[in-house]
Amino acid sequence: MEELQEGGMARAIGVSNYMVLHLDELLERCNIRPSVNQIELHPWNYGARKPVVDLCEKNGIIVTAYCPLTRGIKLNDPALDVLAKKYKKSPAQVLIRWGLQKGICEIPKSANPKRIEENAEIFDFIIEEVDMSIIESWNENLCVSWNPEKAL
């Protein structure tokens, strides 16, 4: 991958599902750091994934979150619903805004044009710091896709 980037065949190198152990090994051996690390990330696994988020931040690697809406599993969570009502937003909008405020690049998936449009309407509010802390307390090590930490 480094040869491809050095040869102008790739603008950047990215990795997916690299946890701390994987990144430590890669960073020890690489000449070019990856620009991005794509991982499953949402409030219900943020506590467990914070070490990899911190390592990426320390090394200038952008974290891209897939499944930031938990594949819909947690969109009816009562605590999330309270915040959605407070901010007069959908639960999905609150989750996307949370990630944005954490500096995370997110990839929310939807095939519904109305939801896609709604998911983009997150720039007209800011989640208060106290509510950001509440959201971060929801960690339960939930993975809604393959968990690379189980493969270690």
Q: Helices, strands, pairings?
A:
Elements: H1 2-6, E1 14-16, H2 20-29, E2 36-40, H3 46-58, E3 62-66, H4 78-87, H5 91-101, E4 105-107, H6 113-119, H7 129-136
Parallel strand pairs: 1-2, 2-3, 3-4
Helix pairs in contact: 4-5
Order of helices and strands: HEHEHEHHEHH
Alpha-carbon distance between the two ends: 23 Å
Count of discrete alpha- or pi-helical segments spanning 4 or more residues = 7
What is the total domain count? 1
**Biggest sheet strand line-up:** 1-2-3-4
Gross morphology is: globular
**Percentage of residues in strands:** 5-15%
CATH fold label: TIM Barrel
> What is the rounded Rg?
17 Å
Largest sheet: 4 strands, parallel
Got a strand count? 4
Structural class: alpha/beta
Helical residues, percent: 40-55%
CATH class: Alpha Beta
Low-confidence stretches: none
Any idea what the CATH superfamily is called?
Answer: NADP-dependent oxidoreductase domain
**What does the average pLDDT come to?**
95
The CATH architecture designation is Alpha-Beta Barrel
Key traits:
152 residues; alpha/beta; TIM Barrel; 7 helices
Describe the 3D structure.
This protein has helices at 2-6, 20-29, 46-58, 78-87, 91-101, 113-119, 129-136; strands spanning 14-16, 36-40, 62-66, 105-107. The protein is an alpha/beta fold and 152 residues long. It has a single domain (2-142), classed as TIM Barrel (Alpha-Beta Barrel), CATH 3.20.20.100. A four-stranded parallel β-sheet has the order 1-2-3-4. The radius of gyration is 17 Å and the shape is globular. 28% of the residues are buried.
